[in-house]
Amino acid sequence: MPNIDRQREHQANERTFLAWLRTSIALIGFGFAIARFGIFLSQINLVITQQETSAHPFFNSENLGLALVMFGIVVIALAAWRYNQVYWQIERGDYQANRSMVWIMTGVVMILGILSIPLLLWRNHVSPSRVPSQPQSRNLP
User: Fold this and answer.
1) How confident is the model over 50-59, as pLDDT tens digits?
2) Beta carbons within 8 Å of 86's beta carbon, 6+ residues apart
């Protein structure tokens, strides 16, 4: 194989690896944001209603956020493994395309997306009788 073609293939391999790396960083960032946003919402609900709300043991934003962060870490590891595998295939001149990683990532993202649907649909309905009519200051004697 001419040297320039091999160089282009290696550069394409690096660009693919960097795309997977960006994807994993986005997954980790979304997971962190989703987990922290759930805590923020429960604190807001506590301030408004003056009552603790219980979260579903499985379908809550902390678990979804944790799953996204863990999946982002797995994506980084798989991307590095795949990059190294393709690197040596290019060097040997026997590159074989493999779409299994794409299908696995697609499936996991779809499953996490489906698991997030209950979080989007589930709402704490606050009845007007539980909402204080006026804000109460905690600094008043």
Assistant:
1) 777 666 566 6
2) 13, 16, 95
- Do 76 and 39 touch, CB atoms closer than 8 A? no
This prediction has a pTM of 0.68
Q: Are 93 and 70 in contact (CB under 8 A)?
A: no
How big is the chain, counted in residues? 141
Other CB atoms closer than 10 Å to residue 139's CB: what's the count? 4
User: CA 57 to CA 33: how far, in whole Å?
Assistant: 19
Cα 30 from Cα 70, distance rounded (Å): 11
DSSP code for 139 = T
Dist CA 52 CA 42 (whole Å): 8
